[in-house]
Specification:
alpha/beta, Rossmann fold, 17% strand, 266 residues
Length: 266
């Protein structure tokens, strides 16, 4: 959970106003030199910063957590951890957009989930920085009992009464990998990437649910949530910022591939 010296980014203007009204919270605009000096390469159209801090230069390094690009999935299958799901043509363009976004970063390590869509997203980034991709199993997608089944709105697996018995506990959740286990492995993977980077930034490629639950744990948000409202679009970047001691002091969010998102996924 975020401590007293904290940066949090939100895209909703009303959230910014609500939090900025709290005592001792400073809203740092993108034009402010303190923002430019402490957060590297944040997309100005999709990031806002709220900062609780004693010194503007508190950030020592960052781990940029990237969600993979769009997958070719015309049947709307919940692919989960199944192998063989690769990026679509649009997804490859998204990966290239993230690689271009990353050019101003000084990366010391790139880690990725073992699944093809994550490896393919990481590839152009690794080529841009001349780094090898290290596979980290802890960055994999969350397990889900409905994996391999269609998951369309109104006509997917959840419309079948036989599936409802799995939905009895949304707080855990009862249909998949416990949120606490996701947080533990993701935090371990983030720390491993941070240390591997040797003082530089690190970048990891993972999947939407583990990324969102990790962010929820950092911000102290409830794990129970509406999946449609996760702020974690395709090829988005959720960046965790650390001080010299390894403490998380900030979180920012950006969308380098926003211009490539299909309208329904924006």
């Amino acid at each position: 959970m975020l401590g007293e010296e904290t940066a949090v980014v939100h895209t909703a203007a009303e959230e910014i106003e609500r939090r900025a009204a709290r005592k001792s919270v400073i809203y740092i605009k993108e034009s402010d030199p303190r923002h430019i000096g402490t957060v590297q390469k944040v997309d100005s159209a999709f990031s806002f910063m709220l900062w609780r801090m004693s010194e503007p230069g508190a950030i020592s390094s960052s781990v940029h957590v990237v969600r993979h690009g769009e997958v070719h999935n015309p049947e709307s299958i919940l692919y989960g951890r199944q192998p063989g799901w690769r990026l679509s043509e649009r997804g490859r363009a998204m990966a290239d957009a993230v690689a271009n976004w990353s050019k101003e970063l000084s990366l010391g390590a790139i880690h990725a989930s073992p699944l093809e869509r994550a490896q393919e997203t990481a590839t152009p980034i690794a080529l841009t920085h001349g780094l090898e991709i290290k596979v980290d199993e802890r960055l994999i997608e969350a397990a889900n009992i409905f994996e391999g089944k269609p998951f369309g709105v109104g006509d997917g697996v959840l419309s079948r009464p036989s599936a409802w018995r799995h939905l009895w506990n949304p707080w855990r959740p009862s249909w998949g990998e416990p949120y606490k286990e996701q947080i533990a492995r993701m935090r371990g993977a983030i720390e491993a990437a941070r240390l591997a980077a040797g003082g530089k930034d690190a970048l990891v490629v993972s999947h939407q649910l583990p990324i969102w639950i990790l962010r929820s744990s950092v911000e102290g948000l409830p794990y129970l949530h509406d999946p449609r409202k996760r702020q974690c679009s395709l090829a988005s970047v959720t960046s965790l910022h650390f001080d010299a001691s390894g403490k998380i002091v900030g979180l920012t969010y950006s969308e380098p591939a926003q211009h490539l998102l299909p309208p329904k996924k924006k």
